[in-house]
Design brief:
This protein is mainly alpha-helical. The protein is built from eight helices and four strands, in the order H-H-H-E-H-E-E-E-H-H-H-H. The protein starts with a helix and ends with a helix.
Length: about 240
């Protein structure tokens, strides 16, 4: 009954759930943040749900099929280039054709012709990117690692890409959430139970170490860029 369910979620006096504490404290998250994060994860699992892809003969079929299907999309290819294709190139419901040649002998006006990198960059950004910079024959934007995130050092190319897609965040200057002032936050920390306060302090220490490492990498990049500029400016002997 409901009492059993409530008991499952309640804690005995003095008992704390350390795993939940760590998750709630990580990144200064609230319960609402976690719920929103779960919703975004579900949305990402269906990233290609409304898309129907056809693969050109010249693109890497295996990895693209696995990637597209794992995120809810439909995909097929020419029966001449492999078995188990489920629809052919003339299917009117195809939304995207993945190609890696600068020109096509025939194009259907009802679909987009994009290079394979559009798939992987959309996955990295967790949303369907505009296709303008990925059309067949177009010079592609820089392809960046999916493991680079807004909490670590970002090369200038990564910042440029994030700005272009309106997802860049300045974590260091972010205002406290829920309208909390620094004093409110200090008082909230003081009121925490001992175990929760220990975990919070660990989080703060970890964030400071990350910030220090990021600043160090930024300085190295600035020095490298300056050295390159000086070499370019130096007269040839």
């Amino acid at each position: 009954g409901s009492s059993g369910i409530n008991a499952e979620w309640s804690l005995r006096p003095g008992e704390e759930d350390e795993e939940i504490d760590e998750e709630l404290l990580a990144g200064d998250q609230t319960l609402e943040d976690l719920v929103q994060s779960r919703k975004e994860e579900e949305k990402f699992k269906n990233l290609f749900k409304e898309c129907k892809f056809f693969l050109g003969r010249e693109v890497p079929r295996e990895i693209l099929v696995l990637t597209i299907k794992s995120l809810g999309g439909e995909v097929s290819w020419s029966s001449d280039s492999g078995v188990a294709s489920t629809f052919d190139e003339t299917d009117p419901d195809i939304t995207h054709q993945i190609v890696d040649r600068p020109s096509q002998s025939h194009q259907f006006l009802s679909r987009c012709y994009v290079q394979p990198q559009w798939i992987f960059d959309s996955i990295n950004q967790k949303k369907l990117l505009p296709v303008d910079e990925y059309v067949a024959g177009c010079l592609l934007p820089p392809h960046l690692s999916p493991f680079v995130n807004s909490e670590g050092y970002q090369p200038p190319e990564q910042v440029e890409l994030l700005d272009r897609n309106k997802v860049a965040e300045d974590v260091a200057e972010e205002e406290p959430k829920d309208g909390m002032t620094p004093e409110d936050k200090r008082l909230a920390v003081m009121a925490m139970p001992k175990k929760r306060k220990i975990l919070y302090n660990k989080m703060v220490y970890s964030n400071k170490k990350k910030a220090s490492a990021v600043n160090k990498l930024k300085r190295k990049r600035e020095e490298l860029d300056e050295t390159r500029e000086n070499k370019k400016a130096a007269p040839e002997s």
